[in-house]
């Protein structure tokens, strides 16, 4: 038996998925309006966090779940209300309303599943929870930390990142990235101050960044998509001198300054988008000085925000 979309919609604080159900598909559980405890059957063979957090369907999700339970199942287990695969190699789902002061992902976990930590601590705890990755982590899946209220100080090296993995997530003062490919929307709308990319970063894909940050350093051989740092578009409305109502579209890039080498892909991106660029030697000392130096660069953003 496979669940259909929202077949279990309801208003129970405890929702029990009946025995016999083997697969729970995306969008199946997005209307459990007040459910705090989700009990899964022993017969379950497939579950995805997008069953309760479906970002492909108008960002619909069941936001009150605090714990997940499952017993005598050959494919899944829970630890402290968090769902993992039976072999503990994949973190499948952290309930979005679970109260967490520090999210410590156990050693042995190799993958953070799709939407697994999405919307965790979305409310008042947003800036108080730190996430600690294990040394065994190898993959962070699509939308894994979408809109998650957790602070992540660094991303482990040699980890595969998928689209939107840290979209809308929270960061500290400096985000350091070693990963070879930064995928589409990886850090869109994420909150951080400075971003340093290391020489191991080969490519920044479309809309990887769409956020307000002070500075970003991009190495000389990193390929930068022409929409890698996505602009924010907004419209203002007012009456002009002739008494006509006029709407004006503005475009602003959420970065004050790009550091890198002259003639590089990063330099070209900055010139094409009227973003302040500083030539920085590709040495640790020069890069550190770039981030430490106070500056107020001129940013031409078609009448957009000033920083």
Descriptive notes:
This protein is mainly beta and 307 residues long. It has 2 domains: 1-171, Ribonuclease Inhibitor (Leucine-rich repeat, LRR (right-handed beta-alpha superhelix)), CATH 3.80.10.10; 173-307, no CATH class. The protein contains 2 helices and 29 strands. The protein has helices at residues 265-272, 284-292; strands at 14-16, 23-24, 37-39, 46-47, 53-54, 60-61, 67-69, 76-79, 82-85, 90-93, 102-104, 111-112, 130-132, 139-140, 151-152, 160-161, 170-171, 174-177, 181-182, 187-188, 194-197, 203-204, 209-210, 213-217, 223-224, 232-239, 245-252, 255-260, 276-279. A 6-stranded mixed sheet has the order 8-9-10-12-14-16, with no helix packed on it. Strands 18-21-24-28-29 form a 5-stranded parallel sheet, with helices on both faces. A hairpin with a 4-residue loop joins strand 9 (82-85) and strand 10. The longest helix is centred in the C-terminal third of the chain and has 9 residues, at 284-292. The protein is globular, with a radius of gyration of 22 Å. The N and C termini lie far apart (55 Å). Mean pLDDT is 84; it is low at 296-307.
């Amino acid at each position: 038996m496979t669940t259909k979309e929202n077949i279990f919609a309801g208003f129970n604080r405890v929702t029990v998925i009946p025995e016999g159900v083997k697969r729970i598909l995306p969008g199946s559980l997005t209307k459990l309006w007040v459910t705090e405890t989700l009990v899964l059957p022993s017969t379950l063979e497939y579950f995805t966090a997008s069953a309760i957090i479906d970002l492909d369907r108008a960002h619909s999700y069941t936001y009150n779940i605090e714990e997940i339970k499952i017993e005598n199942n050959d494919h899944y287990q829970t630890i402290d209300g968090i769902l993992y695969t039976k072999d503990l190699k994949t973190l499948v789902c952290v309930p979005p309303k679970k109260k967490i002061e520090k999210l410590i992902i156990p050693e042995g976990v190799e993958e953070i599943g799709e939407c697994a930590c999405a919307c965790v601590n979305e409310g008042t705890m947003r800036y108080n929870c730190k996430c600690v990755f294990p040394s065994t982590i190898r993959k962070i899946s699509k939308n894994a930390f979408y809109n998650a209220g957790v602070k992540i100080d660094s991303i482990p090296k040699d980890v595969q990142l998928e689209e939107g993995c840290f979209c809308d997530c929270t960061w500290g003062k400096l985000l350091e990235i070693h990963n070879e490919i930064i995928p589409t929307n990886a850090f869109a709308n994420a909150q951080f101050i400075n971003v340093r990319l290391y020489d191991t970063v080969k490519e920044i894909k479309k809309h990887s960044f769409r956020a307000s940050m002070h500075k970003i350093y991009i190495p000389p051989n990193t390929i930068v998509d022409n929409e890698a740092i996505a602009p924010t578009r907004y419209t203002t409305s007012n009456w002009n001198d002739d008494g006509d109502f006029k709407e004006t579209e503005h475009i602003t890039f959420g970065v004050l300054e790009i550091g890198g080498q002259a003639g590089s892909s990063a330099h070209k991106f900055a010139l094409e988008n009227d973003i302040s660029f500083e030539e920085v030697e590709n040495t640790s000392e020069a890069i550190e000085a770039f981030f430490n130096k106070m500056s107020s660069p001129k940013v031409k953003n078609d009448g957009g925000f000033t920083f």
